[in-house]
Amino acid sequence: MTTALILDGHPDARSLTAELARRYAAAHGDARVLAVRDLAFDPSLRFGYRERMELEPDLADAKRMLREASSVTVATPLWWGSVPAVLKGFFDRALLPQQEYRYTRLGLPEGLLPARRGRLLLLADTPWYAVPFTGLPAQTQVARNTLRLCGVRSVRTHRMLGVKTAGPERIASWIARAEELGRRDGIRDASRSRSDSAQANAAAAASSSVVATS
Question: By three-state DSSP, how is residue 178 classified?
Fold first, then answer.
């Protein structure tokens, strides 16, 4: 089981988004990249929530990866204020009520994914000085209304703005940033994994030492 899952939401494997996802995963050391473009599934939630659609094998595998990951990173470009259709379709089909989230009797959302930490690598042609006027709705959509709703409580967003006009040095700095984030998260996740394993072993040892008496 990997500790980190990286969702690559760009339709083009040659994109900078895809490269950042690969560099982050390689630097992490215990991560898996799930390129949504490579999955065979219908991205349209054809019946809304009125009727369930049968999960395609790729989608069932992706949901299993989400349930096994202790951290989730999403790498995506910002298109028309949102994310690419293939990534939005993945969210629609893969994140389902009573499976990845549910609502309490009081109507409050409860996330069901085990991951508690996540990152959003958000790329946009929008320059930084235009953000106060245009906003970055995809950030709210992915970080708050998707990941956090499904249980990923702490999501940090890293913006790469002005991609269209960025020169080689700036692009190289973004790649280095993704690698540094991957290394940092890899160290954190490895430490947490060892701690969880030690706690599990201690609990097992304590349980095996109990002597049943009448």
Answer: helix
Could you list the pLDDT tens digit for every one of the 214 residues in the chain? 568 999 999 999 999 999 999 999 999 999 999 999 999 999 999 999 899 899 999 999 999 999 999 999 999 999 999 999 999 999 999 999 999 999 999 999 999 999 999 999 999 999 999 999 888 999 999 999 999 999 999 999 999 999 999 999 999 999 999 999 999 999 998 887 666 554 545 444 545 555 554 4
How many beta carbons lie within 10 A of that of residue 22, not counting itself? 19
d(CA 85, CA 79): 9
Provide Rg for the chain, Cα atoms: 19
pTM (predicted TM-score):
0.88
